[in-house]
Amino acid sequence: MATYDDPRILRAVAHPTRNRILSELSAAGSLRAADIARLLDVPANQASFHLRQLAKYGLVEEAPDEARDRRDRVWRLADEEGISFRTGEMLDRPGGRAAYAVFQRSAVAWGHHLVDRALAPGGDRAKSVSEHAVRLTVEESFELMLEINDVVEQWRRRTQGPGASGVADDGRRTYSVYQLIQPMPDGRPADGADDDNNNEHDDEGDD
Fold first, then answer.
1. 3-state secondary structure of 180
2. Measured between alpha carbons, how far is 112 from 120 in angstroms, rounded to an integer?
């Protein structure tokens, strides 16, 4: 897996469209700009622009061995295992904290979007949501994360394929596997949920 500490690269992947392109390439293995345009519902020239920007930072590259001819441009991840960032080193570099703030806002917005869609009633039934509480040491939490990553990676490699139209011939489409492992927040539940429940009980007692 490629690892970076350059704030400019973090800003590049913080862009929602570019981040989605990286995800689609990870799932599919390789795609053309026209394929990405259909998947993201953006103009083909816009998809090409974002691919060139990602290529400028060495995140994607052309796959000439998969092209039909010299004019055909097929793209793939420069490192098929993905990318990661050395956050500590990057924050100490000029522009590092500002770049991380941009990335954080984008990541939080994307996380909210995924959860809102997953919990929305009706609609697409091809989704699942689960939350588990597990007692762990810090070391065990990293071990669990690696085990989950291994399972997801096995599935990614098993099902990877062009799927140029976004839905492969076997009915597959790109799924988001959103993973979060962290200690439970301290203090009361968010949004005062505990207070609301207590108020309901108090009202019943007054009748």
1. coil
2. 12
Give the burial class of 40: count Cβ atoms within 10 A of its Cβ; 0-12 exposed, 13-18 middle, 19 or more buried.
middle
pLDDT in tens, 78-116: 998 889 999 999 999 999 999 999 999 999 999 999 999
The Cα 53–Cα 24 span in angstroms is 16
> Residue 137 — pLDDT band, cuts 50, 70, 90?
very high
> How many other β-carbons are positioned within 10 Å of the β-carbon of residue 69?
5
Secondary structure class of 70 (helix, strand, coil): coil
Distance (Å) of CA 28 to CA 165, 199, 207 = 11, 51, 61
Tokens of 89: 């080193």
Task: Answer positive or negative: Cα dihedral of 70, 35, 33, 7.
Answer: negative
Question: Angle at CA 34, nearest 5°, toward 53 and 71?
Answer: 80
Tokens of 103: 């990335």
Q: How far apart are CA 21 and CA 9, in angstroms?
A: 15
Helix, strand or coil, per DSSP, at residue 133: coil
Structure tokens at 151: 């399972």
Tokens of 81: 């295992």
CATH 1.10.10.10 fits 2-206, yes or no: yes
